[in-house]
Amino acid sequence: MGSLKYIDKKGTFTLDNPDLTSYMYFPLANEAGMMSAITPDLGGDIKLDQNTFLLEPVSSENLHNNKSSRNFWVYVEGKGAWSVTGRSAMQQAQLFTDKKDDVKLTAGIMWHEIERKSDEFGLSAKITSFVPSTDDKVELTKIVITNNTEGEVEFTPTVAIPMYARSASNIRDHRHVTSLLHRTYTIKDGVVINPTLTFDERGHNLNKVYYAALAKMTGFEKMVNPESFCPVTEEFIGNGGNFENPYYVMKNMPLPYKEGEEVDGYETVAAMQFEKVTLMPKQSRTFVVALGYGESMNDINELSKKYLSVEEFDKYLEETKEFWQKKINVSYSSADKEFDNWMHWVNFQPMLRRIYGCSFLPHHDYGKGGRGWRDLWQDCLALLIMEPAKVRGMLIDNFGGVRLDGTNATIIGSKQGEFIADRNNITRVWMDHGAWPYLTTELYIEQSGDIEFLTEKNAYFKDPQVCRGEQKDLEWNDAQGNKQLTNDGEVYEGTVLEHMLMQHLTSFYDVGEHNHIRLRGADWNDGLDMADERGESVAFTALYGGNLGNMAKLIKSYADMTGNETVELAKEMLLLLNVDPTVYDSIDEKHEVLYSYCEQVKHSVSGEKVNVKCTELCTILNRMSQWIAEHIRNTEWIKSKDGYSWFNGYYDNHGNAVDGDFESGVRMMITAQVFTIMAGTATKEQIKDITAAADKYLYDEKVGGYRLNTDFKEVKTDLGRLFGFAYGHKENGAVFCHMATMYANALYQRGFAKEGYQVINTLFKHCNDYKVSGIYPGVPEYISQRGRGMYHYLTGAASWMLLTVLNEMYGVKGEIGALKFKPKLLAKQFENGEASVSCMFRGTNIHVTYKNGMCKDAGDYKVAVIYIDGQRYGETDTIAKEDVDKFGDKADIVVVLQ
């Protein structure tokens, strides 16, 4: 296995022999909807959505099981056939011998290049692939074949790319029948499929998509078209053959079809053969291949004109590189250049998630596209840093998914702000869902200073599910639509603040027998899905409590900054607010409050508004927040027989605490530690105890740091399906990077910089060690028991890593529009006493340099003075909002620490 090396400051890396690592894939995509996955041997797939795959859909196991790839063959006279992608039967047989091809990967943001050299054939190939950052749905590849011998080499080049051209559901469902729909055409520079119909979950419909594979070769002062074609798979591979040993290539025969022919009803391969090529020593010949989509044959012809030349390929490649580098407007300069480059990829990952959703890469084979409720809000965290101009409207639209009972829609449409009723009538309530919108909204307001965002309005979502998933609204029907109506039949709208209050107040009263918020279907850990009757989540009760207190601070800021003494709320919310605090201790009385409110908004709402004083509202929210914190401190702090202490995080479906000493051993889950620390529930002394316990029971350097839980040693069916997974995998005890990163974030927030750094640095060191993690740069969803990074690229961990490093480690953060510096960098992170970060803040590109001349550690220094563009600003750690407003397009800021 080779070693991975960065070759610049923009994340570009090289890797020797990537073909000796299985399960590897790389994303290529654009904002027009083109989504590809490509492997070192050019396997993978291409799609626009679940129903429109150009290449056959692949999951992780298909990457080594399938024989098909974006293959390109050369038949060398006197020697035989060589695949420039390494996908011939002969090359596969030589993979572990001294006859193996030399292979090198070079890749950067959204481009992928493989160099392959064969001593046996005397040839080398450089294969560069990318998806142009245009509005076109096309993937481009350039293949350069070079003669490395002292004599001339003659070969016949053949493109051979199996085309799928239908829905992923047809892999097993009507695979053969849907091939009968194919109408395949050979055109002057390629093969095009225009199926007659589509058979998938949408029904039987006329097809409107053209799928194309196009190719040209450099000739003398022009690009040359293929000479012959074979669009039929069974014909091209021959009886007994396959895509690694195809009949027409191995026999070196001209392909049997010419331009302008049609073949109907067969599985299709884009097999295109060019005229024989003779290369003198060191001479090269170049080919350009385009795989793309159109809505007409004219669209396909336009792709050919636009992209099938070396000059245009090179031009669009450079434009695409520049496009994505500009998008990544956060970069770091520290003593650890490897970390700086690794973070460049982490910063890019939220953009990939916005394009791919949570599906459409080989390990993410469990979905059909789109994103979940948490994804809507957590992806916005990164967008607030990277592309803040787009976020305001997105946040408002997202609030349209909240129901009046505080739950939310779980089927999210393809359009922004589109939420859909579940026609299967499946009740889904994740108890954590109400907490995330506040965290994102708070960050938006802190970054932007847009405090009046709290008064922006949107409707509420409506479907049959009411009373937090316990009842059905039998009066609701499709004609009513998916928006909450008033008693008069008008669409009801409430402020952003009202939406967030609704989510938190209803959760506050929705408690189990230990007076913590009910787990219901699950919380953030979707695997905790088998305790819907008696399960409780102490972990997220703590987060709701912290949010309630922080919301009170935000409302106070709103009143102070706007002069408004009241906020407008739905009249029904008084049932949740005007409650004697003694009720908080009574589970039955809490239920009475909740169900009384839910009954009032079960089908429609009055539409009446009331003005609530900000001071009174803040008092209520603070009281609730404090009650939660004290309740958890008093009831959930546990101590093991080994003398370690931490917070219990859950109750199972038998009403038993999950953490603690058991016959099978100590049980500890990190989630409760994260949110009790983050919410301020844990005291400073308790945090010290928690970190000691986590180091004792959860830390494992061999797999990247802090595991999600200890081994329960049972299939715990009264808590969740995750316990059916093998220990050390996914949600059952893996290092789940999302929660590990949030653990670091919580520690940094509370001033435990060294402990937070250990979490991030251990995770980084592991992921960045290719020989151990087996992944390209970036943070995966989790790390397996054997140390492998799993479910790479599309993970919420990236957004939280970006926030943690920028806002907490580097301490660049907003404070209601002001720019605050509160760095927690360790002494060893400074290079010659300096560390810097470039990012966007309120529309300005800022470059912040910290000067730590005394080489002090985090916690030992403070901000002494700030300079802006060389001018002394003052002895402060904050640049006031009105002074930030004076920034131009960019600002160079020096922060002196002492």
From TrEMBL:
Name under which the protein is recorded: Cellobiose phosphorylase
Domain of life: Bacteria
CDD domains: GH94N_LBP_like
PANTHER family, sorted: CELLOBIONIC ACID PHOSPHORYLASE, CELLOBIONIC ACID PHOSPHORYLASE-RELATED
Organism lineage string: Bacteria, Bacillati, Bacillota, Clostridia, Eubacteriales
InterPro entries associated with the record: 6-hairpin_glycosidase_sf, 6hp_glycosidase-like_sf, GH65_N, GH94_catalytic, GH94_Enzymes, Glyco_hydrolase_94_b-supersand
Residue span(s) of domain Glycosyl hydrolase 94 catalytic: 622-811
Key word Aminoacyl-tRNA synthetase present: no
UniProt KW keywords: Glycosyltransferase, Transferase
A Pfam family assignment: GH94_b-supersand
Keyword check for Transferase: yes
Domain Glycosyl hydrolase 94 supersandwich: 81-308
Naturally occurring in which organism (per UniProt): Eubacterium album
